[in-house]
Amino acid sequence: METSPPPNWPRPRFQPGGGNAMVFYALYGQFPAAIQVSAEKYRTAGVPQGVRIKKVTRQDMPEFPFTGSGISRLLQPQLPEVFASIQSAPECLIITGEVGDPSDLNYLRDVIGLVTYFVDEGAQAVIDPQKLGLYSSESWYQEIFEPQPPKFLNHAVILVTPELGGIKWIHTRGLRKFGRPDLSLRGIAPEHEQGAIDLCNRLIILQAEGTRIPEGEEISVETLPFPMTCHHAGDPDDPDYNNVHVEIRR
User: Fold this and answer.
1) Predicted local distance difference test score (pLDDT) of residue 70
2) Of 10, 19, 28, which is closest to residue 75 (Cα–Cα)?
3) Which of 7, 95, 215, 243 has its CA 20 to 30 A from that of 115?
């Protein structure tokens, strides 16, 4: 590892006690036995404390993680050719771990740099299971590595799920990588959908920057005609989020 210091990724609104951040990426391809990462090129200081890298082969695991029939229904339509390439990839790298209540985002910067190095050194595809995101090498560079300063909205996803009566459930995934809860707004009428999305975008950025959402906090945006309150719920095993979440309701 070369030692040129990478740029700092601060959290200007950091409030302690928000929880541990979890990083989790799976890469598919064939990777070099020897690793030599340029800190300057990849903006990384190495593997953060609490994070580990594990390689598995087809001999170890005939079906690689996140390639089964359940999750494939969500990932394959994003980039069908890229997902197909995973099925013949001989190796899989898992980069995962937790960082305790981080006051900056340097751990995420470091992991993104490491993933990018492996993208350049043999990865055909990258999966972010927290966001349910699938990347080619090109889309990884464009959406995740190249933006400086980082675009926090690219690290989470806002899902819109139709419910009975024409209403929508608006919720996020991916905020556990910042050590913050995901977001849920249920019973959203079609005319308020954009306002709910605007609110999620606002809270994604605030939480990535370190804000904590207090229990019972009243919150509003110009595009919603009514205030809403925030209530913490769930646990990290909830499959809708793989994270705790905040229910935001009228």
Assistant:
1) 82
2) 28
3) 243
* pLDDT of 226: 87
Q: Give the residue among 208, 181, 243, 246 at the shortest CA–CA distance from 24.
A: 243
pTM above 0.85, yes or no: yes
The residues, any chain, with a CB within 8 Å of residue 81's CB and separated by 6 or more, are none
Q: 63 CB contacts (<8 Å, ≥6 apart)?
A: none
Domain range summary for the chain, segments of one domain joined by +: 21-146, 153-249
Taken as a whole, the chain contains a residue count of 250
Rounded Cα distance between 57 and 138, Å, is: 24
First to last CA, the chain: 51
pLDDT number for residue 49: 96
Strand arrangement of the beta sheet that strand 21-29 belongs to: 51-57, 91-99, 21-29, 123-128, 133-135
Collect the ranges in the chain with pLDDT lower than 50: 1-2
Residue with tokens 């990347």: 135
Number of H helices, E strands in the chain: 6, 11
Phi, psi of 133 (to 5 degrees): -110, 140
Contact criterion met (CB below 8 Å) for 221 and 202: yes
Distance (Å, whole) CA 112 – CA 23? 10
Burial of 69 (0-12, 13-18, 19+ CB in 10 A): exposed
Burial of 181 (C-beta count, 10 Å sphere; 0-12/13-18/19+): buried
